[in-house]
UniProtKB/TrEMBL annotation, chains A, B:
Protein name as catalogued: Bifunctional chorismate mutase/prephenate dehydratase
Keywords: Amino-acid biosynthesis, Aromatic amino acid biosynthesis, Cytoplasm, Isomerase, Lyase, Multifunctional enzyme, Phenylalanine biosynthesis
Known pathway: Metabolic intermediate biosynthesis; prephenate biosynthesis; prephenate from chorismate: step 1/1; Amino-acid biosynthesis; L-phenylalanine biosynthesis; phenylpyruvate from prephenate: step 1/1
Major location category of this protein: cytoplasm
Source organism: Novilysobacter erysipheiresistens
Gene3D superfamilies recorded: 3.30.70.260, Chorismate mutase, Periplasmic binding protein-like II
Subcellular location: Cytoplasm
Pfam family membership, one: CM_2
Length: 366, 366
């Protein structure tokens, strides 16, 4: 039978009683919260569908406060998850949000959906990124979630290009950590003489490899999947790959996560049909069409600097609508309803052929 | 811009203030709960790994109380999920539970893992049911989750058969609802003249079909995947299948969930290495080896009836250890530490060649 360490049974009983008391109060408060949330969603005596009163800027504010006042023992990430689930449950009392994502179920996109919206939603797995845009545009989905950037593989161009023609708005971003594992057939570190992986994965796990496998040969390959495939056919080889490759290729996890820094992330965008008000810490994504003329890029960037706006990302793409035209995707700090952003956009209008505001949305929380 | 129905902005601000106050208190209580849980897990001044103080019977009791005192507005299932997550977070403060399951990620088995253990765990996707048993047995996984029964397809024999040779114990069960959707190429119900599906899926969605597609031809096929495959190549056909088939076969969801009763479930077993004490509402799984002689089955069943124990399931399997031997998997109400069960087992010992207690565990909660 299981034991609870060295704790005295009386102490254990009294600890559990206190926990039970806490649970009772938490439950009362959650019910009260759901009632108040219901009042927010009630118009003309009838509770509205979640999409009609979902407010991303408000959720971001709530979660930031959760992080600000957290002083343990639980981590910020765990607490944010718990509060997302509580908000998700309160919001879904009538008709839950319908969220389109790049399926099938079990993908990182689905994880990003749950991370951002909680589990009290209705997920719609779709076959392509195009379809996610389409279902959001048509209203079949209330929101969509698409990957846009991977810290190891860079920008997902097909997502950015959708914005050239689509009218959907960005109303959120989600960052998801992706972990690396060391996988091998035997699962024993002492058998490993060679390690296969993508060069970027080697770079991510450098310190770990130096500490635990200093003498193993490192063999770079085109992908981590290829690495796992090769590790399968040798007793003395291992691969660095995501844990799911262990199952697909019949390998065992030797160790993991083994990346040196916990910042190996994929960034997703939340798509909707409208812009939401500022949350206080926002990002604005712009699509700027300019003529290819000397100094054009400088003219485009200068207004942001002049108004003290940080630029998080710039990506140029060939435009589709004119011969000499180029398009830039630019992410800046701030919200289009804020003065500095508005002023910069006014100045930008003098140089750009067109500026499309793709969205202003809360910066991702944990 | 989004609006919040007809609500007066002052009322909205005051509602939000009250919600903020509630959130602050919930957060304080969760932190306090985590501290107390930490004290339960602390022996000799050091916080133990989750596996050393995880108590399934205690969790079941906590969750039953949550259900008992719930009087809305949130549903039992949502509240149970929230409290599972809170307990999961409190438990994972040092080293989270490692849970093996039948991968890859995104399967129903993974959903069952999260439903039972919350998200603050370390999931190990494995390639086969054998491996889940093996990793639990060896200690590489703290617990495992395997499917054992589907309300439409019946018992998963390969799981049951593992118990014939394995020493792992059942220490929990999870029930997961599986939903049916109507899928077609166009996604428009007015285009549908034929519906493909497995006969059991037709049976599950009978009332819905009668109401919405009374004139469509119903064509039974061997599987829902085959149904989806066929629906892909016709404009006037639809399939009844799980929503994930929509993505795999490039179909759109016309409607769903469309099953008439919400009891289309898959049952999973939680595997561990030890038995836990009673939770107050438990089930016991037995593997009974008997000689094939007249009246043998009656002798096996009689003690349970005599001691007022309900029998939830009986399944006969050819035994592997003797020529005339048969094995029965039997689930009864109660826990092996309870008098009635103990007495029935004592009586059973007179007739059975061997009785193996596979586990005594809390009945699944919502």
């Amino acid at each position: 039978m299981a034991t609870s360490g060295n704790i005295n049974p009386d102490d254990l009983a009294s600890l559990r009683e206190r926990i039970d008391g806490i649970d009772r109060t938490i439950q009362e408060l959650i019910a009260e919260r759901a009632q108040f949330a219901g009042q927010v969603g009630r118009a003309k005596g009838k509770l509205a569908a979640a999409v009609d009163y979902y407010r991303p800027e408000r959720e971001a504010q709530v979660l930031r406060r959760v992080v600000d006042r957290n002083d343990g023992p639980l981590g910020d990430e765990v607490l944010v998850r718990l509060f997302r689930e509580i908000m998700s449950a309160c919001l879904a009392q009538q008709e839950p949000l319908k969220i389109g994502f790049l399926g099938p179920e079990g993908t990182h996109s689905q994880q990003a959906v749950y991370k951002h919206f909680g589990h009290s939603i209705h997920g719609l797995p779709l076959g392509t990124i195009d379809e996610v845009f389409g279902e959001v545009q048509s209203g079949a989905a209330d929101f969509g979630v698409v990957p846009v950037e991977n810290s190891t593989q860079g920008t997902i161009q097909s997502t950015l290009d959708m914005f050239l023609s689509s009218q959907v708005k960005i109303c959120g971003e989600v960052e998801l950590r992706v972990h690396q594992h060391l996988l091998s057939r035997s699962g024993r570190i002492e058998d490993i003489e060679r390690v296969y992986s993508h060069p970027q994965s080697f770079a991510q796990c450098k310190a770990w490899l130096r500490q635990y496998l200093p003498d193993a040969e490192k063999i770079p390959l085109a992908s981590n999947a290829e690495a796992a495939r090769r590790a399968r056919s040798a007793d003395d080889a291992a691969a660095i790959a995501g844990i799911s490759a262990a199952n697909v290729y019949g390998l065992k996890a030797v160790a993991g996560p083994i990346e040196d820094r916990p910042d190996n992330t994929t960034r997703f965008l939340v798509l909707g049909r409208e812009l939401f008000p500022p949350s206080g810490n926002d990002r604005t994504s712009l699509l700027i069409f300019i003529k290819d003329q000397p100094g054009a890029l400088h003219h485009v960037l200068a207004p942001f600097a002049r108004h003290g706006l940080s630029m998080n990302r710039i990506e140029s793409r060939p435009g589709h609508t004119g011969r000499w035209q180029y398009a830039f995707f630019v992410d800046i700090g701030g919200h289009v309803e804020e003065d500095a952003v508005r002023a910069a956009l006014d100045e930008l209008a003098a140089f750009a052929q067109e500026v499309k505001v793709l969205g202003s949305y809360p910066v991702a929380i944990t």
